[in-house]
Design a protein that fits this description.
Layout (H helix, E strand, L loop, with lengths): L1 E2 L8 E4 L2 E11 L7 E8 L5 E7 L3 E4 L3 E10 L3 E6 L5 E5 L15 E7 L2 E6 L3 E9 L12 E6 L4 E5 L7 E5 L5 E4 L1
Antiparallel strand pairs: 1-6, 2-3, 2-6, 3-4, 4-5, 7-8, 7-10, 8-9, 10-11, 12-13, 12-15, 13-14, 15-16
């Protein structure tokens, strides 16, 4: 158990039979009232972000998430198959849980899988990944008043805006938080 006053971003807790991760926390204390702790939390199972209000001193159960290194083996159609690096156990994760992550993972990559008591919650992506451009528009001169950009399609199917000097076949680094171009690899 943990007192909600001691929450920090990144803490995982169980509240009303749901698993949440703390994103942000605010303490509100006035002279006439008891402290109110407002927590912005992400539901680990659904991905929904909600605001939860507690009174100061409330206790919730702290949850411990396990993180395992697993390699992505192949696409099963409606799920992705991963293999544990140590035990060689294989698990399948449904694609509907990994909609955003599908834009950044390639076969053979080693990723961090998040697990709570045997239930796989998802994947922790690195901050940046390197991907190859498979299709790219030709550079068009003329629109150089602003930062000149063009569309490029990556090997995972993600469409990103890249500078004019980047060409088809180049490896680029992409931010996984928002899917934007960072630099050439």
């Amino acid at each position: 158990m943990i007192i909600v006053n001691d929450f920090k971003p990144g803490n995982t807790f169980i509240y009303e039979n749901q698993l949440y991760t703390v994103l942000d926390i605010q303490h509100n204390k006035t002279a006439m009232r008891q402290m109110i702790v407002k927590v912005k939390a992400k539901n680990c199972r659904t991905g929904a972000i909600t605001d939860i209000s507690f009174t100061g001193g409330d206790k919730v159960e702290l949850a411990h998430l396990e993180k395992k290194k697993m390699s992505y083996l192949y696409d099963e159609g409606d799920a992705l198959c991963f293999m544990d690096q140590d035990t060689y156990d294989q698990v399948s994760i449904p694609k509907e849980r990994l909609q955003w992550e599908l834009n950044f993972i390639k076969e053979g990559e080693v990723l961090e899988i998040v697990d709570y008591e045997g239930e796989i919650l998802g994947i922790n992506l690195p901050a940046k990944v390197t991907l190859k451009i498979t299709k790219c528009e030709p550079a068009v001169r003329g629109d150089t008043v602003n930062k000149a950009m063009k569309d490029a399609y990556l090997e995972t199917g993600l469409k990103v805006r890249v500078p004019l000097f980047v060409e088809e076949g180049d490896d680029i680094i992409v931010f996984t938080a928002d899917g934007t171009y960072d630099s050439r690899a």
